[in-house]
Amino acid sequence: MSINGAPLHGPTAIRDKAAIVGIGNTNFGAVYRDLDPERSAFDLGMEALRNALDDAGLKKSDLDGLIVVRIPGYTRFAEMLGMPQLRLVNVLEGGGRMAGVALQYATMAVATGQAETVAVVYGNNGRSVGARYGGEGSRTPSPDDTAPYETMYGFTSPGAAAAMMWHRYQYEYNAPDDGLAAVAINNRKNGALNSNAVFQKPISYDEYVNARFIAEPLRLFDYCIINDGGVSFIVTTAEKAKTLKHPPAYIGATYAASNLNHNYHVQDLWWEACQDVSRRVYKEADVTPSEIKCAEIYDNFTPTIVFALEGFGFCERGKGHEWVRGGRIELGGQLPVNTCGGHTSESYMQGHALICEAVRQIRGEAGARQVPNADVVQYNCASPITTATILHR
Amino acid sequence: MTVAEAPTRPKPIPPIFKVNQGFWEGSKVGELRLDHCIDCEHIWFPPSSSCPNCLSTNIDWKAVSGRGKVWSWIWMHQRYGWAFDSEVPYLLVQVNLEEGPSFVSTLVGVQKADIRFDMPVKVTWQERNENQSVPVFTPDDTERPSGAPFGEE
Q1: A343 lies in some domain
Q2: Domain assignment present for A44
Q3: What residues of A are annotated to the active site?
Q4: CATH code at position A271
Q5: Could you tell me if A114 and A65 are in contact, meaning their C-beta atoms sit under 8 angstroms apart?
Q6: Interface predicted TM-score of the whole assembly (ipTM), two decimals
Q7: Fewest 10 Å CB contacts: which of A21, A163, B70, B86?
Q8: Closest listed residue to residue A165, CA positions, set A313, A384, A392
Q9: Lowest-confidence range among A129-138, A148-157, A282-291, A334-343?
Q10: β-sheet bridge partners, residue A378
């Protein structure tokens, strides 16, 4: 099976040709507690990039590619970076789906020689400037806007879309009211081991089920944080990676598949997109889900983790809500998930911080939350643009 | 809350543009009119100026049955400082129309305990202003002309 009849993939063009060699971020907890209406996404991204360059042992002049995400413009960022002359440069919108896309583009560029060393830079000042993901927007409506057809009913937030999907899932697969508790509790438990996490206090089962509903059936602890911060990662060729400071996190494969409509939500709960990506990403990287030592899973809302675990083949379709119970996704379990605390505990960096955590695990740098022998790690994101990337030692 | 204290801010409503004019004209007479392709008979929502199936611009508006099934629903509890705050928790549903397109909307005329997945619903209208009513849905107890209960085909 394939999308629109296209072949599953052509030659294994990118396998192990590129690696992530530098990761960097801002502090997340401190900036969460210190709102600054003048805080700039450019500055947050720059701080993260400085850290990523230091981490890699690279100079800014080693970069010939730049992909900025959520930062409002590549021109100003390249100017601030003092690197006006680049070979690959662009901006991606500030959506959670874009972390995997940015990594895919950087990998393609490096693997095909469009650029040698590409920095992905993400900056988010949303909390300080009062970004909201629900309620009435402030944009002047245009004939092409479709959001007003939902806003007129009071439906505006991606969380409401996730709730719509999860409720249907509960019906189709008989998932109980507390079917997401293990996922929400796991994220907070891992965040407690992360000194940079916004929320470092675990939550109990009672705290989870007694928390208020936001979009019923989703509760407070099913929701991501909104916080400021910056994240950067640097992709370069396998040859160059071998000469740098840290062991490379090789990119075994990275693929995407979309399912786009004017609603955020889709009625197959991202199943086909996840399956399409799975068929290609596991084949090219030559791994199976059982060989993956930990998974960093995009989690704007907790149902996404369950959909991804099923869609990417870690468990049977419809069984994810049972599979996550009993410590299976916790540190020490069969498949530790979101070891840094994810978007509900560490930071809402729209996927980018999870990619950095995957690299830390590959390197064995994750400290108290290190998964033993994490030689193969997956980042995935079940969303309108579904992506998965296999990183390995 | 007394009437005098009730929020006066209106619920948002999409502006009328050329691309959606037929939809809103239908709303005034209680017809759910969707984009229809004269060349390939495709029906779609939200409105756009070309057919997503065959890309033709030879399109018009077609009144559809207004019948569908509830795919899922949620209760919104969060307040965002707007007109819906006074109604929390309020009901939002995803309705799949018989003709294909899927709608976010709400249900009226049904008790909370009586909402079911895949329950048959039909369109009804809530007036927002003299030119625009929004389609909402209500349980559809009528049998279809064939006599077959909707949803078992």
Answers
A1: yes
A2: yes
A3: 298, 348
A4: 3.40.47.10
A5: yes
A6: 0.94
A7: B86
A8: A384
A9: A129-138
A10: A295, A390
CB A265 within 8 A of CB A162: yes
- What predicted TM-score, i.e. pTM, was given to this entire model? 0.94
H or E element, residue A91 = strand A88-92
In the block, residue with structure tokens 């949803």: B151
Please report whether residue A60 resides in a domain.
yes
pLDDT band at A140 (very low <50, low <70, confident <90, very high): confident
Q: How many domains does chain A have?
A: 1
Residue closest to A160 by CA, chosen among A135, A178, A129: A135
Tell me the per-residue pLDDT of A79-108, one tens digit each, with 9 for 90 and over. Answer: 999 999 999 999 999 999 999 999 999 999
Q: How far is B44 from chain A (nearest CA, A)?
A: 12
Could you tell me which of A187, A213, A212, A209 has the C-alpha nearest to residue A200? A187
Q: How many residues does chain A have?
A: 393
Among A197, A176, A178, A179, which residue's Cα sits nearest to residue A188?
A197
Say yes or no: B117 contacts chain A, CB-CB below 8 A.
Answer: yes
pLDDT tens digits, A16-52: 999 999 999 999 998 998 889 999 999 999 999 999 9
pLDDT of residue A10: 53
**Residue B11 contacts A where some CB pair is shorter than 8 Å:** yes
Task: Identify any residues that bridge with A297 across adjacent strands, giving them in sequence order.
Answer: A380
> Does a structural domain hold residue A186?
no
A147 to chain B: closest CA residue? B14
Asked if residues A311 and A304 have their Cβ atoms less than 8 Å apart, the reply is: no
CA A380, CA A179: separation in Å to the nearest integer? 21
Residue type, position B116, single letter: R
